[in-house]
Amino acid sequence: MSNSKRSYGQFCGVSRALDVVGERWTLLVVRELIMGPRRYKDLADTLSGIGTNLLAARLRDLEAQGLIGRRKLPPPAGSTVYELTAFGRELEPIVFALGRWGRKLLAPELGDQIFNGRWLLFALKANFIAAQARGVREIYELRIGDEATVHAEVRDGNLEVREGPAEEPDLVVDAPLEVLLALTRGETTPAKERKAGRLVQQGSREAFERFWTIFDGAGLPRGASSSAVARA
Prior knowledge:
The chain is α+β, with helices and mostly antiparallel strands and 232 residues long. It folds into two domains: 13-103, Winged helix-like DNA-binding domain superfamily/Winged helix DNA-binding domain (Arc Repressor Mutant, subunit A); 118-231, Nonspecific Lipid-transfer Protein, Chain A (2-Layer Sandwich), CATH 3.30.1050.10. It has eleven helices and eight strands. The strands form two sheets. Strands 6-5-4-7-8 form a five-stranded mixed sheet, covered by helices on one side. α6 (92-103) crosses α7 (118-126). The longest helix is centred in the first third of the chain and has 13 residues, at 52-64.
């Protein structure tokens, strides 16, 4: 249990949850571990600005609360990694929902904010709609120019996401981060961005339509049907 200095002292589930995960950086550590086990160095590199002592403190707190654990990888790696426990995994839908909500608050342009390609993996998982992916077996590669490349493998309602290019993608989408964000918020259309040369698509229109539909209808203006993407 959190000590009195850090506790809201209220007998309420929201209050108690914030006692545990409401500290600065804590949910961002959870975000990183949702994507899989990470070494201390990996976390420090991705969470630039956190500071070594603060990261160590957050990991200790999460471990004490039973949200994360440590284990040593087998040879030849032999590294110690942090990973979410079953209890910690219960935070996934909550953090995904925060990510979807927060997407609406992002500025139109990156500006001087830090971007890491690994966060595209999180975005794909957060916006994945399993029901839309039933019966679909395709691989989608997403490129942000020279900044990042990730891919998503959809297999009949299941999703695997990885960094790097896919071996045989069914669809490749290449666009600046700002364009992708505008598409997901319905502020522009694929046709407009293709015409301007800001969106490059390799693959069939049908695969493109399925991609946007499976990942939370991204790119569809409010009230538009998914077939609008195919015609766009």
